[in-house]
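batch job 7 of whatever, protein = VOC domain-containing protein
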Amino acid sequence: MDPKMIWANLAVEDLERTTKFYTELGFKPNGAPNNELTSFLAGEGRFVLHFFLKDVLKPAMKGEITDGHAANEIIFTLSAKSRDQVNAWAKEVTQAGGKLVSAPETFGNDYYGFVFADPDGHRFNVFYMEGF
């Protein structure tokens, strides 16, 4: 397989809330939101994150959609440039309405970071790796 690109399609309950949350975190909009989805670009590779209303995405999934508040579905990792940036992002996440699953901490060999959930329970791992 040699896909041209890859992106994520995630289910949300409230497009306005999702748009506000990711805009406050500084994610770049990927076009204007409409009545079915809001979309953002993340990172230097411009990874696309589509957030569809749950009822719109469900038929394409050919099955049930996990409640992000009750179970883990996937965890995205966001790479920070420094420990200070990790700490700043933790504050931004809580100010925007996200939930810190774990506070910034040292883990593994030379890693520093935290885990957060967006308002729909989608999880992100933020970390800084020494020497990376």
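notes: Strands lie at 7-12, 28-29, 37-42, 47-53, 75-79, 99-107, 111-117, 123-129.
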